[in-house]
Amino acid sequence: MNNSQTANVTEQHDASHGSVKGYLIGFALSIALTIIPFYIIMSGDYAKETAVWSIVILAVVQIWVQLKFFLHLNFITEEGRANSFSFLFSLLVIVMVVGLSIWIIYESNAMMMY
């Protein structure tokens, strides 16, 4: 490997791990997305349904921020695409295991009640 190839590999490696600016943006967004639901609940100014849906939406945005800024999941690079698909597959397996376990436990409980 010559020097230009080594520099290119180093730049790609550094780019995949993010920058200080990216981490600070992610940190600021995470703090804001934590404080807003806290305020919604503590103020008591919102209806229960509005508060619940606001918290759910902000939680989904918080998950996206964590995945993008801290876990660096993206579909731009080949490595990012592979990592994203691995994460999504793992999430699918976890949802299936937990969901099916809850379903089995619920159905077993329902059968015992008859």
Question: What distinguishing features does this structure have?
Answer:
0% strand; 114 residues; flat
Q: Bin the helical content.
A: over 70%
Contiguous low-pLDDT stretches (5 residues minimum) are: none
What is the general shape?
Answer: flat
Query: How far from one another are the termini?
Result: 73 Å
In DSSP terms (H or I, runs of 4 or more residues), the helix count works out at 4
Order of helices and strands: HHHH
Radius of gyration from the alpha-carbon trace, in angstroms: 21 Å
Structural class: mainly alpha
Number of strands: 0
Average pLDDT: 87
Main beta-sheet strand count, sense and barrel state = none
Strand content: under 5%
Overview of the structural elements:
It is a single chain. With 114 residues, this protein is mainly α. Helix 2 packs antiparallel against helix 3. It is flat, with a radius of gyration of 21 Å. The protein contains 4 helices and no strands. The chain has helices at 3-16, 20-43, 48-70, 78-112. The model has no long low-confidence stretch (mean pLDDT 87).
Write the layout of secondary structure elements.
Layout: H1 3-16, H2 20-43, H3 48-70, H4 78-112
Helix pairs in contact: 2-3
Summarize the structure in short.
The protein has helices at residues 3-16, 20-43, 48-70, 78-112.
